[in-house]
């Protein structure tokens, strides 16, 4: 065998060993088949972005394929209920967000699931603000411009969101009340179609997760007027917060997280937590989360459970205050 061939063989064995070393030891016979990650929203939005961020890397950690699926509709309720009704064996995992898990139970007369009793939290992915954006050719340059136009023509200024009852929708309702203006809500079935119509001029403004629009902002296709975080974040460091603009009641943060059906064996939840957080804490993935306008969390199941409880309490008050409801 030549030195060249020997070098190639050694390099190949080293790569194979490295790949093998990344795989977490199984818990009993788990996992022994593909793991399905389910997003309750369509492709192209923030929920889908975070699901695929992990699904693309999870196979290298678990040794099993990770299948990303979108089951959208009813503000995330359809996909969430689908996972709640799935076998509690660790092979079907929900990737969801604040609007579905903490808002929908108060907003919908019947969401079809209970976020506390129907799931076991695995880990929170991130914390991120929402963004208020317009098309790059929009005459609206600031929140002051938005307010002035809305006051001049009450109800004529339209704002798009990923759907009725989403965090974006509620933020729009609270914005109207706080700013003393009247807007017209245009709900879509996800962020991607809403963004397409924003850039096409069918709607004037869009409220959505930063991850849904970060790339478009960097490419100069849309412009952010403000974000809802308590401080400026990541690639949105040049965008003012609503609090900076004098709107003290407009600090809201979105998050995405992983949930397994209630009854999933604790050892399998622990395995999923270890595998998913290992993916999230890799430098490349953390950078993508930062570039999308968020901050990495990757905490414990208990921390996600506590965060969910706080947000359910907070958003139930916001829903009641806004008067919003969805049948």
Based on CA atoms alone, the radius of gyration comes out at 21 Å
Q: Count the strands?
A: 12
**Helicity range:** 40-55%
SSE series? HEHEHEHEEHEHEHEHEEEHHEH
Low-confidence sequence ranges: 1-21
Sheet having the most strands: 7 strands, mixed
What spatial form do the alpha-carbon principal axes imply?
Answer: globular
What gap, in angstroms, lies between the N and C termini? 73 Å
Structure annotation, total helices: 11
Q: Kindly estimate the percentage of residues that lie in beta strands according to DSSP.
A: 15-25%
Name the average pLDDT.
Answer: 89
Decide which structural class fits the backbone. alpha/beta
Short description:
The protein has helices at 3-22, 46-62, 77-84, 98-107, 143-152, 167-179, 191-200, 210-218, 266-280, 283-291, 301-322; strands at 35-39, 66-70, 92-97, 119-124, 126-135, 158-161, 184-187, 205-209, 222-227, 253-254, 256-261, 295-296.
Architecture overview:
By secondary structure, the chain is of the alpha/beta class. The chain is built from eleven helices and twelve strands. The strands form two sheets. Strands 5, 6, 7, 8, 9, 10 and 12 form a seven-stranded mixed sheet that branches. Helix 6 links the parallel strand 6 and strand 7. Helix 2 crosses helix 9. The longest helix is centred in the last third of the chain and has 22 residues, at 301-322. The chain starts with a helix and ends in a 5-residue tail after the last helix.
């Amino acid at each position: 065998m030549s030195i060249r061939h020997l070098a190639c063989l050694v390099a190949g064995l080293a790569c194979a060993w490295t790949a093998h070393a990344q795989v977490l030891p199984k818990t009993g016979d788990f996992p022994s088949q593909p793991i399905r990650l389910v997003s309750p929203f369509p492709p192209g939005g923030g929920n889908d972005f975070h699901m695929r961020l992990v699904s693309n890397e999870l196979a290298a950690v678990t040794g099993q394929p990770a299948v990303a699926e979108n089951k959208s509709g009813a503000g995330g309720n359809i996909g969430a209920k689908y996972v709640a009704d799935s076998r509690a064996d660790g092979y079907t995992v929900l990737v969801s967000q604040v609007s579905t898990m903490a808002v929908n139970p108060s907003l919908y007369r019947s969401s079809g699931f209970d976020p506390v009793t129907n799931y076991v939290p695995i880990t929170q992915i991130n914390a991120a603000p929402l963004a208020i954006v317009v098309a790059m050719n929009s005459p609206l340059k600031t929140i002051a411009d938005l307010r002035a136009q809305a006051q001049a023509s009450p109800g004529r200024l339209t704002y798009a969101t990923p759907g009725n009852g989403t965090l974006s929708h509620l933020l729009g309702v609270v914005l109207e009340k706080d700013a003393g203006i009247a807007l017209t809500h245009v709900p879509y079935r996800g962020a991607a179609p809403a963004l397409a119509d924003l850039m096409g001029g069918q709607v004037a403004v869009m409220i959505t997760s930063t991850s849904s629009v970060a790339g478009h902002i960097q490419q100069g296709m849309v412009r952010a007027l403000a974000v809802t975080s308590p401080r400026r974040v990541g690639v949105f460091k040049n965008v003012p917060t609503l609090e900076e603009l004098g709107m003290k009641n407009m600090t809201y943060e979105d998050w995405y997280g992983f949930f397994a059906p209630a009854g999933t064996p604790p050892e399998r939840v622990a395995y999923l937590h270890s595998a998913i957080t290992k993916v999230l804490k890799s430098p490349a993935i953390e950078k993508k989360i930062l570039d999308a306008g968020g901050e990495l969390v990757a905490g414990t199941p208990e921390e996600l459970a506590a965060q969910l409880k706080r947000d359910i309490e907070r958003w139930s008050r916001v829903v009641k205050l806004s008067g919003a409801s969805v049948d």
